[in-house]
Amino acid sequence: MSEFFNQYFDFTVMGDHFSEVLEGFLKNLLLFAVVLVLALTWGLILALIRQLPGKKFIPLRGLTIAYIDVFRAMPLLIVILLISGGLPYLEFIPKDIRIPQWFGQPDPFWYGALALTLVYGAYIAEVYRAGIEAVPPGQIEAARSLGMSHSQAMRHIVVPQAITKIPAPMLNELNSLLKDTTLVSVVALGESLLIGREVLAETFNSSAVMLAGLMFLVITLPLARLVDYLIKRNQGKVTRGAHIEVA
Amino acid sequence: MPEAMVKLAGVHKRFGELEVLRGVNLEVAKGEVVCILGPSGSGKSTLLRCVNLLEPPEDGEILLEGHDICRGPNSGTGEQSWELDFVRQRVGMVFQQFNLFPHKTVLDNVTLAPRQVLGKGRAECEEKGRALLERVGLSDKLDQYPERLSGGQQQRVAIARALAMEPHVMLFDEVTSALDPELVKEVLDVLRGLAAEGMTMLVVTHEMGFAREVGDQVVFMDGGVIVEQGTPADVLDNPREERTKKFLGLVLER
Q: Computed over its alpha carbons, how large is the radius of gyration of chain B?
């Protein structure tokens, strides 16, 4: 038992490497913040394409559905490896894009950001879709009967209502996204897990890896409580609504 | 005879195997109020939804102010095309379930479409919105959200919202059916006012008293066709068709 504690909870090791691991964790948070913006936008675009009406959009809708299915079916780690291993060799792409080092971040950061955006965009598109489909069809009919185009109805009527229906599932996705930023360590981005493993290789002690895990808990545990709270509050709303209708 | 405001000829509508409209012919003159009665599933609501192309018909002709709004595959263009913009800026619709926008205030519900669709300025739209809401007796509710309003109030907002687009024709789809009995009159009074001002109206309703009092024409539908039509006195008091008699017997004997 004490061996276990020494291996994972050696406070000397944690203390010695605290600032390095924290610096790595801040990189996780930065990657998370970048992907958060990109994936929320990309997911919304995918969800909106999926809702385009009429026969002429069948090919585009089909393509979007295929994209969403494939990127949810593909292991994220493999997507990260494929992008960081493939993109630099696509020579028809300008060098600044295939080996991006924007805003002082190294190329693994951007490969990770791209992979996470591609995959999480697909998951988030499905969350948006659930919200859009939860808006009663009468809302679109009312908007259309007032002369609004499909895109006006989506922008002013459907999407604003849809996003109020999905905060809990969306936060779940974002929670997973934050944790999955550690996977980018596989392409040598110096984030908390990679630093933890470097310390492990140096000291044969896993406490720095554990420390990285604990840093995640500080954010993800309160998030889990928040999701629970939002779900409960939402159920309360539904019950009250039903009560009004009965009365 | 003046040109009909709305004219339907041989309108067919199918949902999969189910043929909901099986050849409907109807003419509505400018300023006329046509009340449409019939059992549920008879195609009344679908008929209204065809007129503003929420459910484009598969076959037949619909003329709005003489303009063919559903030029079919045979009209020369080679493919079905519907004049959505022409229709929706001339035809207003009010629904059984109100369908107010819950995330917008009462005033925003009324001003949204004129601002976004017609591109009018906010000040102009709000002035007009206030006037419309005053007319339906809701000037004290401008900044409320719909969920705070009673069903009757919500339905009056929905009517003001449709009127804000300055429609030439109004469609009312069982607009009092979801209301508590004591709230029906406040909505019907708004309809009476509109009729008195000469609005052309197609009203699907189960309110026989309203149809008798306000309707210029009463239409009885069953099984996707118009079974009988005429003045309220003709159709309601002296129905010729067995199906009309049976329906009226069931409704009036309640």
A: 18
Neighbouring C-alpha atoms within 13 Å toward the C-beta of B149 = 29
Q: How far is CA A81 from CA A10, A72, B22, B130, in A?
A: 33, 16, 60, 60
Site of tokens 């019939």: B38
pLDDT band with cut points at 50, 70 and 90 for residue A238: low
A26 part of contact set with chain B, CB < 8 Å: no
**Regions of chain B short of the pLDDT cut 50:** 73-79
Angstrom distance (rounded) from CA A23 to CA A27: 7
CA B10 to chain centre: 20
Q: Which helix (H) or strand (E) holds A202?
A: helix A192-203
CA A146 to chain CA mean position, Å: 37
Tokens at B214, concatenated = 């306000």
ipTM: 0.88
C-alpha to C-alpha distance for B30 and B216, rounded to whole angstroms: 11
| pTM for this entry | 0.85
> Any chain A CB within 8 A of the CB of B95?
yes
Q: Nearest residue on chain A to B81, judged by CA atoms? A: A54
Cβ(A27)–Cβ(A189) under 8 Å? yes
- Structural contact between residues A174 and A192, judged by C-beta atoms closer than 8 angstroms: no
What are the pLDDT digits (tens) for B109-124? 999 999 998 889 999 9
Backbone dihedral angles phi then psi of residue A228, each to the nearest 5 degrees: -60, -45
pLDDT tens, position by position, A171-226: 999 999 999 998 888 887 878 888 888 888 888 888 888 888 999 899 999 988 99
Strand B33-37 with B217-222, pairing: parallel
Interface test with B, best of A144, A145, A149, A159 (most B CBs within 10 A): A145
Contact B52 A161 (CB under 8 A): no
Element (H, E) at A13: helix A11-50
Q: Are A161 and B104 in contact (CB under 8 A)?
A: no
Beta-carbon count within 10 A of B119 CB = 7
Judged by phi (left if over 0) then psi (alpha if -120 to 50, else beta), residue A121 lies in alpha
Task: Name the nearest CA neighbour of A77 among A182, A171, A173.
Answer: A182
For an interface test with B, the pick among A146, A154, A161 (most B C-beta atoms closer than 10 Å) comes out as A146
Q: How far is the alpha carbon of A145 from chain B, nearest alpha carbon, in Å?
A: 6
Angle at B135 between CA B134 and CA B136, to 5 degrees: 90
Q: Cα separations (Å) of B53 from A21, A145, B63, B83, B92? A: 62, 9, 12, 8, 12
Q: Is the separation of the CB atoms in A114 and A164 below 8 Å?
A: no
